[in-house]
Design a protein that fits this description.
The chain has 3 domains: 159 residues, HUPs (Rossmann fold, 3-Layer(aba) Sandwich); 86 residues, Adenine nucleotide alpha hydrolases-like domains (SH3 type barrels, Roll); 81 residues, Beta Barrel (Elongation Factor Tu (Ef-tu), domain 3), CATH 2.40.30. It starts with a strand and ends with a strand. Strands 5, 6, 12, 13, 14, 15, 16, 17 and 18 form a 9-stranded antiparallel sheet that branches. It is 23% helix and 28% strand. By secondary structure, it is α/β, with parallel strands linked by helices.
């Protein structure tokens, strides 16, 4: 019997290294490929260029495991599909999640095309997620995306935009493991990455000073910083209509007070504290809203400012995505789910109402920092069944 071929995205980190090791132990023909997706160092924090050492580590792991190793430059496509999207979203006052886009557009799309050149049957990554295959009576298969066993490292959220086609060829060899267990295994088999720190920052770019990074395409533009007092919210009459909860509050201007200037509303996001450079307040200032149309930032004092909290969010119909299409809901239906709007956020109880214009997610408890452009993902138990881009 000829063993199946798996291409592993060797990133130079410990997770993908152990993924490659496990697959080889299971009898697969393993090929390691390092993706070069970014060259520009503009805005990168000093000493944090991810490609400087990662290729060397990936080569060392491939040599240790005695597997074939290659590099591939996908930077042109990465720029078009991920970075240009980022700039466009920030310009519109939204906060994108490049890691989600990177998985949908690069790791499980253009990288799959690369893998096919090596006659790969599957593509594997070092994500802390799991896949389950359910066969229907008619012989068709449903690929279920499940949370990783390590709840502190579960990365299913970052895979929330994958399709059934993408999941059909995906493998997540370490999804059943705990991180400490994985580190111990890496040490035991003497992988060069055993003690290497986990990467941080934008997928394939690294940790960046965001305003500097964004200034490559988004020019600075001075505008007003307007403070909204907590007392203002005590006078807002909350509606029982959940659609009202989703509407961004842009009538701050007549209730706020100008307290300073900023260099561009598109450089800021809801919940941000650093970078305002305005002091002298009893409590720290946080961004509670941005408006790129009038180039205004709205801020409030204290991490518990009511302007940071909302009850619901909205996702446009065209931006709804069902990872498991067999569980798709129809217009007019409502369902209870567990929802996550940020990586590592504990799952939140919510009801999703499906309408002709899209979906309204109404949470049981107020949520801090709901941000347009980010992704909401909903689960049934351990299974991530759908997701969408937050629009309001």
């Amino acid at each position: 019997m000829v063993s199946k071929t798996v291409v592993v995205g060797l990133s130079g980190g410990v997770d993908s290294s152990v993924a490659a090791y496990l697959l080889k132990e299971q009898g697969y023909k393993v090929i390691g490929i390092y993706m070069i997706n970014w060259h520009d160092t503009t805005g990168l924090l000093e000493g944090d260029c991810p490609t400087n050492d990662d290729i060397i580590f990936a080569k060392l792991v491939a040599r240790k495991l005695n597997i074939e190793f290659h590099t591939v430059d996908l930077s042109d496509e990465y720029k078009k599909r991920v970075v240009d999207y980022m700039f466009s979203e920030y310009q519109q006052g939204r906060t994108p999640n490049p890691d989600v886009l990177c998985n949908r557009e690069v790791k499980f799309d253009i990288f799959v095309d690369v893998a096919k050149k090596y006659n790969a049957d599957f593509v594997a990554t070092g994500h802390y997620a799991q896949k389950e295959i359910v066969e229907n009576p008619d012989g068709t298969k449903i690929y279920r995306l499940l949370a990783g066993a390590d709840k502190n490292k579960d990365q299913s959220y970052f895979l929330c935009q994958l399709s059934q086609k993408q999941l059909s060829i995906a493998m997540f060899p370490i999804g059943h493991m705990q991180k400490p267990e994985l580190r111990e295994l890496a040490k035991k088999v003497e992988l060069a990455t055993a003690d290497k720190k986990d990467s941080q920052g934008i997928c394939f770019v690294g940790k960046v000073d965001l305003p500097t990074f964004l200034q490559q395409k988004l020019e600075p533009k001075q505008g007003d910083v307007v403070e909204i007092a907590k007392e203002f919210y005590d006078t807002i009459e909350q509606s029982n209509d959940y659609k009202e909860f989703c509407k961004p509050i842009f009538y701050y201007k007549r209730n706020g007070k100008k307290i300073g200037k900023h260099n561009g509303a598109h450089y800021y996001t809801v919940g941000q504290r650093r970078g305002l450079n305005i002091g002298g307040k009893p409590e720290p200032l946080f961004v509670i809203a941005t408006n790129t149309y009038n180039n205004t930032i709205y801020v409030g004092q204290g991490k518990n400012h009511p302007g940071l909290y909302r009850k619901a969010l909205f996702i446009k119909l065209e931006e709804l995505h069902w990872v498991n299409p067999s569980l798709k809901k129809n217009v007019g239906e409502s369902e209870n789910y567990l929802v996550r709007i940020l990586y590592r956020q504990p799952l939140q109880k919510a009801t999703i109402h499906f309408h002709e214009e899209g979906a309204y997610i109404v949470f049981n408890e107020l949520q801090r920092g709901i941000t347009s452009g980010q992704f909401a993902a909903w689960y049934i138990g351990e299974e991530l069944v759908g997701s969408g881009v937050i629009n309001g």
